[in-house]
Structures
1.
Amino acid sequence: MDYSKRIAPAWILPKTSKSNEVFTFGSNQAGNHKKYAAKTALGFGAKYGQAEGLQGRSYGIPTKGKSMDKVLPIREIKPYVDRFIQFAISRPDLTFLVTEIGCGASGYRPKDIAPLFENAVNVQNIHLPERFWKKLIKDKDGIF
């Protein structure tokens, strides 16, 4: 399978994205969208106080605790990612452009976070960052 058509762009902006594209970002459990991709998500309709789920044309996946200083362990991020994947499956009319969640302020690397998206590999409306794909498919299909 050719995953190259499902690579999320490195830069996703509200004015240049399509109306059915959902900016999928890492948030904190308090829904305090002040920095990084979470701040960008405000332009897509993210709501202060809502940490998880669909918010306008954005979807939050918590990677930090209620306190901005606390990074969630991978085992606590996984259920959020699993719910996201199930939601995306239920909304084939939308295309989810996933940012490198957890790989900025939370300090994880793609090799840590990408495996959480293993169940998204065959979900056609989920577009992942190139570095996630590289970890997920490990050159199996020869596109990387």
Note: Residues 18-137 form a domain with the Leucine Aminopeptidase, subunit E; domain 1 fold (CATH 3.40.220.10).
2.
Amino acid sequence: MIDDTHPDDYDFTKYFTGMHLRRLIEEQGFHRTKQLINRLTKRNASRVLRRYADFFPPDILMLTKEALFERYQQSVLEQMAA
């Protein structure tokens, strides 16, 4: 995975906010992250996400049927192990 997001290209606030959003998307998924942003910004998640789209994990935009099935399988395995 190649990451083209470089700190020198953004001001401090945008870079660190963007990187935190990336981490949330990677850990919780895009939908849950959008729900959180909507709750915290009075339903302005779409605008916020457009502003920070440069920071999204590269694979978030290229979700294939196979990748979705693989994530599903991993999730089921984790649930069964608990």
Note: The chain has four helices and no strands.
3.
Amino acid sequence: MSLSALPFPEINATLNGTATLLLTAGFICIKQHRIHAHRACMLTAFFVSAFFLVSYVTGKIVRGITYFDGQGFWRYLYLTILTTHTILAIIIVPLVLRTLWLAWHGDFPRHRAWARWTFPLWYYVAVTGVVVYFMLFQIFPHHGG
């Protein structure tokens, strides 16, 4: 099987959806003081997100860009979501790395302070990744042209 035969959009949406579920579970676990479960969820979310990044870049190299076919309100909504998603996806990488590094080194007061910013941004990026997929490939699929 060649790379071009892989369903990259579906793989990527699944990875983003999985990251969203793991982030949700990790948040619930920390609120319940289940530290080990929180750590497992967040580390798994990190690796799922890292795999997403590799898959996303590979998919763009192999298959190229897909254009949005929606018009009017839907086009503006899509572009707003895509723009905020993309900007925050770039910003979130060093935030996640720093937040994990602080936890890894046992600096939990600073970890919590960073996580207050990192978590909602990471969550937004994961959720909007799924939204972008649905808008691009399910609601307004590209028909060429």
Note: The CA atoms of residues 7 and 87 lie 25 Å apart.
